[in-house]
Amino acid sequence: MSTPTTPQPPHRPRLGVFKFASCDGCQLTLLNCEDELIGIAGELEIAHFLEASSDIAPGPYDLALVEGSVSTPEHLERVRRIRADSRHLVTIGACATAGGVQALRNYADVEEYLATVYARPDYIETLATSTPISAHVPVDFELRGCPIDRGQLIEVITAFLAGRKPGIPNHAVCFACKRRGNVCVTVAHGTPCLGPVTHAGCGALCPTYGRGCYGCFGPAGTTNLPALLPILRRDGMGDDDIGRFLHTFNVTAFTAVAGQEPGTTEGEDPV
Amino acid sequence: MSEPVTGSRVLRVPALTRVEGEAALHLRIHDGTVTEARLDIYEPPRFFEAFLRGRAHTEPPDLTSRICGICPVAYQLSACRAVENACGAVVDGQLAALRRLLYCGEWIESQTLHIHLLHAPDFLGHDDMISMSRSHLAHVERGLRLKQSGNAIVELLGGRAIHPVNVRLGGFHRTPTRAELRPLAERLRTALDDAWDTVRWVAGFDFPDAECTADLLALAETGTYAIESGVPTVLPYGDEPPRSFPLRDFRDHVTEEQVPHSTALHSRLDGRRHLTGSLARYAVNGHLLSPLALAAAREAGLGDPPLRSAAPGAGRGEVCRNPYRSILVRAVEVLYAVEEALRIIAEYERPAHPHVEVPARAGAGHGATEAPRGLLYHHYALDGQGRITDACIVPPTAQNQGAIEEDLRRLVQGGLDRGEDSEAELTRLCERAVRNHDPCISCSAHFLDLKIERPFRQPWRVRC
Ligand code: SF4
Ligand code: SF4
């Protein structure tokens, strides 16, 4: 019996994949790289990836991919430990990069949230906020999206292996729409779309399917949000609708760009 | 030989992470008897039900999909059904067929992931798919190919495999043309062979004896194996006949209670433990599978499923209650989903409109579908402008938790009775007991060091 033996370099870089508060979708993106998975496993030693393997090795890790936001007291400590154990730390997805959808709690009364969901809120340990990894430790690169894009993830891993910066453009979804030859949904159909202010990465998926972008990649590098607001109003959105539109999957990031809080909880201190 | 089993001790597996999130195991053993088995779910609360309040009725599909990246389609479609129910909208014909096609994609992708990446390594003594691929490369490659064909369906219909963007209330933003579906059909024909081979492969595994004594709960639909719709139907353990109840009464039957050790709420069905998912679906609906899938089920040793109207034990059909064999049912369901996808594509005519209108109105609605891991229920109450005033989501994992704990208790007890007393042996048993139920991919995948404390010194609540 012969087992296929690919000669492996003596020191393959060690990969760790870690999860905080999240839906697991971003790490699943790695498992969805079916064509590349076995290749990646040959280039990197998968030292810690709970979703995929029972074989867990301690740090240090050369590359840590971190999914999810910091939302419990235990997370605060764990995120520091992972940082200390990792040479390169890359956040994957809106949760890790901007606090995720669960950061809606930052603008609400968490005690009340707990009481809505749990009969005995005192059993639950949680922080009043859901924060990005970068609020706690230095981060080497942030990959956006809810979920992240498979092609961009492979680019990040390839760049890491080659020792160069990931080539992830910072422009808006509109660019991808033009490149794809889409008819603009706002110009042609008056559909409200956040494409002009949203970070590229998805290949302009929503407009390709005839809907407006809802901002799941968060704000683009340079955005002119105030210029978009009158267009959204023209297309039938009230201020409340605009507030919810911007404040969903990347609530903290769009809030930072807009310099305002979600309309529904005016006056609340975001902590 | 391990030391004699006397006194109390506690077994802990500190990080199973995730059951719809993160989990750990906690077993208490007293004089060789398991006195307590807990699946501790400590996934941080994310408050979806709370922040859905005040949102527009169009938002639940995109929002709730972020509860689980492993089965986003299940969340999107349960949400759509509940809101459409509240607003009095009906989605049928080709739009309903497209939804079923999308769901078939998720079934193929998600069940195949569980079979190949998570569950099979248990039977073959591996830590993961990567190490398994060294000795079983062809099987792993076939699994990845099959998974990819499921993803291809979701990507084509939904735009992307995780959190698809094309689903909306009333149907889709854009429907595909027949021509766009054609390449998918070619790929699915290969997938049909792969799915058959998968059934044969897993049928050759070694299955320990075990029996799950929980009541089985699945949706039932007239004339077809229920996926994206149906009426909750219970096949009780023992001699009671099957029973159904209207979906609007779901919360009168499936009640949730909070337990101190878990952030997931615990559910009970009419006061008893129950199980949803593949075993339940096959027991309730197996006779409605296609002839091909039924032939595969027979070949895999699952026997003839009972007719729903026949009382169990009446000599008509078998109910598979062995949780280890759930991998067989999953493999059969993948085969069925591939075949069903091919059928829907063959009969597809592009509908005149990509969606029906779902005008907002005050009301309450219920929606349930069969997520790969089991029945997923959503409820929303809306005000006159369609703002959500109340939301309730009951995921399969919360429902299955009681049955999983009972399984853990029984399997570890069996191990102890056979003299399997070492930490390694008991840990392995626990891991397998949990993975059998696929409570959520990451939960079933990894186990850190299990600790046995002898003698028992810790307070009842041990934080990991
Ligand atoms: S960013 Fe989105 S897809 Fe990624 S883990 Fe968070 S909720 Fe899931
Ligand atoms: S178009 Fe916008 S909302 Fe749609 S996938 Fe891309 S970034 Fe996300």
**Mean pLDDT metric of chain B:** 85
Tally of domains of chain A: 2
| Strand ordering within the main sheet of chain A | 2-1-3-4-5
Order of helices and strands of chain A: EHHEEHEHHEHHHHHHH
Biggest sheet descriptor of chain A: 5 strands, parallel
Q: What structural class do you assign from the helix and strand content of chain A?
A: alpha/beta
Number of DSSP helices of chain B? 13
The counted number of beta strands of chain B is: 15
Layout of SSEs?
The complex is a heterodimer of chains A (271) and B (464).
Chain A (H helix, E strand, L loop, with lengths): L13 E6 L5 H7 L2 H10 L1 E5 L11 E7 L5 H13 E7 L1 H5 L11 H8 L23 E3 L6 H13 L10 H8 L4 H5 L15 H4 L16 H10 L4 H8 L4 H8 L13
Parallel strand pairs in A: 1-2, 1-3, 3-4, 4-5
Chain B lengths: L7 E6 L9 E8 L2 E9 L6 H5 L7 H6 L6 H16 L5 H32 L4 H7 L1 H22 L8 E2 L2 E2 L5 H26 L11 E6 L10 E5 L7 E2 L5 H4 E4 L8 E4 L4 E2 L2 H8 L5 H9 L26 H21 L16 E9 L2 E9 L5 E7 L1 H22 L5 H13 L15 E3 L11
Parallel strand pairs in B: 6-11
Antiparallel strand pairs in B: 1-2, 1-15, 2-3, 4-5, 6-7, 7-8, 9-10, 12-13, 13-14
